[in-house]
Amino acid sequence: MLPVEHSCEDILRAILLFLIFISLGVPAIAQSAEEFAARARQLASQGRPDDAARLFRRAIEISPRKRDDWLSEYADQLAYSGAAEAAVPLYREVMNAPLQPEEKRESARRRLALALFWSWNLEEAVPALRAVAEDYPDDVDLREALNRATTALADVEAGAKRLAGFEMLWKGDYLAAVPALRQLVEERPADAELRSGFADALAGAARVRAEEKDFKQAVALFDEAAQVDPARADQFARQEAEFLLNGGLWNDAETRFRELLERPELSEEDRRGTLLGLARTYAWSGRPDEAVSIYDTLLAKDPDFASGLVGRGQVLADLGNYRRSREDFLRVLSVEPENADAIRGRARTTLGLQRPREMLLQLAPLLEEQDPAARLLAARAFHSMGRPDLAADLARTVVAQGEAVEEGTTFLETIWLEQTPLITLDIAHAWQSDGLRITTLRGRQTTMFEDGLTSFSLETALIRYRGNNFPDVNQASLRFSGSRRFNDAFEARGTLFLNIQDSREGRSRSTTFDTEIGFNQNDIWRYGLHLSRRYAGDTSRAIVERIFANDFGISARFSSSPEMRAAGRMMWSSLSDGNRRLSFEANASRQVLAGDHQVWLGAELRGFTYDRTSDFYWSPSSNANVLGTMQAFGPLPRGWRYGLNGSLGYSRSAPDNQGVTYGIRGQISREISKKGSIALSISHTSSLARTGEAGEGFGTLKSAWNRSEIGVVLQLRF
């Protein structure tokens, strides 16, 4: 153990040395930082840049005033250790330090360029390396780095362009994708993926142009797509033909389809698809028989070919052959119960068979999915049921969703036109073999409300009666008519007549009416109740004598199919002169010719009985008629249409008049515009079972009673 005085002396000497070191602290610590830097250089020479960088960082932390001296070396070791990105700002700091020697700053510029490349900052590395390489043309490392960076940047840029081009393609921006991918294909013509994508973009752009009705540009784009990707040339040619077809260029579409069929390398699947397209071309261009022939050929090879069955079914439905069309759709549904085209096709045939309620049930699955085409079919069903309100609501929904806009808008325009106020002018003149002549002038305005559920008409009529043995009468009537559809089943209509009659006997006034309540049980049966008050006959005698008939009746209408219809009616009448009348009528007809020109043949039975005869209206004790009937109508040139009705049969009136009865009526009509039409008519009726009403008494005239009439009807909407 040291003596105490020695120990104190040593302690004092140590304190003195510590104070000296404090006063000289920086040089003493700097010596320690220098050791770190020296050790870092040693590790760097041994190929240990990670450790060297760590010691340089420690040296700078210990002696910040030495940062400028060691910063460049520190950055080098960071770059060599794989942390080139962290070295970049350090090199920039060296370059921007004003006290750094020019040689060190120039060295930092070179190494910065390399660090940018090593950190894969290619956009900055390439120009930096190019600038340094120009100053040091003999630097092999710089040249190699520049070449590699330039190639890598080109690859990155090409990849970005490629990705951008394909993204535009995937998003459906075909018009923008075409030039982007075209440039890439020109740069790399051997890239199969690029060529395929470019062909897809061209085909997509062609479809866009076709939808814009720019078919010339569309055809050019489809042709280029086929040249870019020859393996899919048939596919693009068929797409081109399909769009020409959809655009209404049927001749061009037919040419394309036929060119495809002549290609020997066409696969069986493509040949079948091409035949389908050709069949649609024939169907849409008004050549349904040729279309059906192609469908028959396809189905002969494969009777369950769904697209062929659907296509043929649609053409047959267009021709009005709903039963055969229905068979095709049912066959598809037996194999593919959820085939939407077949469901819609069957529904369409059901509507054609006049079964709108049944059709709505068939469409239920598609209506739940809000299928736009099914909704429009349902709208047409509601329209045929007398529910224009529901029809318009469905059509508006489809149009608002931006689907089937053209078809939906056209249908809405039809409904709107039907509900546009209508003015009707009707002029007629009739003359009879008993000398009576009747001239009628009517004017009527009809307005609809509540989307067509309610209608109201105001009519003025002037009727002039003249005849040798008939009283002259001038009748003026103001008529108020209305109708209301309450729901799918019930409807009501009625007319009130306010009449003023002028004759030699003076002026008289009367009120008559006619009402009906209808009940639509289903798609087959409709019933009606009738109540009316009218003049007892259609001559001026009943008007002058003020003889009215109060009628009550029932009616029924039956339609088992579009080609078959029947109706019946029975009326009980109580006349104001104490007489009573019972009348009945039944008829049935069947369509024997369908298409543009239709012909119906049928039979009619009608008759009536009176309690007693009267001199003021034709009233034999009984009358019966058995008639064969014919109805025909169809188009004429220049937009005219014709209608022809005829009947021929046997009539008997008690007590002893009987013989042949016939009638014929012809009409031609033409739409002046969507808001106007004109119709001309002429008719003639003759019966050996009816006597004249000129006062000779019944049963005394043996010649036939005849009545002829001509008329013109003008309708205008505004």
Detail the poorly predicted runs.
1-6, 16-31, 693-701
The helicity comes to 40-55%
The order of strands across the largest sheet is 1-2-3-4-5-6-7-8-9-10-11-12-13-14-15-16
Q: Helices and strands: which structural class?
A: alpha+beta
Top-tier CATH class of one domain: Mainly Beta
The residue-averaged pLDDT reads 83
**Main β-sheet description:** 16 strands, antiparallel, barrel
What is the general shape? elongated
Beta-strand level of the residues, as a percent range? Answer: 25-35%
Any guess at the CATH architecture of one domain?
Beta Barrel
Alpha-carbon Rg, integer: 49 Å
Distance between the termini: 133 Å
CATH-defined topology of one domain = Porin
Number of strands: 16
Can you tell me about this structure?
- The protein is α+β, with helices and mostly antiparallel strands and 718 residues long.
- The protein has a domain at 422-717: Beta Barrel (Porin), CATH 2.40.160.
- 48% of the residues lie in helices and 30% in strands.
- The chain contains 23 helices and 16 strands.
- The chain has helices at residues 4-23, 25-45, 49-62, 67-80, 84-96, 102-118, 122-135, 140-170, 174-187, 192-211, 215-228, 233-246, 250-261, 268-284, 288-301, 306-318, 322-335, 340-352, 356-368, 372-384, 388-400, 405-418, 540-545; strands spanning 422-432, 437-449, 454-466, 473-485, 490-503, 506-520, 525-535, 548-561, 564-575, 580-593, 598-610, 622-635, 640-653, 657-673, 676-687, 705-717.
- A 16-stranded antiparallel barrel has the order 1-2-3-4-5-6-7-8-9-10-11-12-13-14-15-16.
- α8 (140-170) runs antiparallel to α9.
- The longest helix is centred in the first third of the chain and has 31 residues, at 140-170.
- It is elongated.
- The termini are far apart.
- Mean pLDDT is 83; it is low at 1-6, 16-31 and 693-701.
- Residues 519-638 form the PgaA membrane beta barrel domain.
- This is Tetratricopeptide repeat protein.
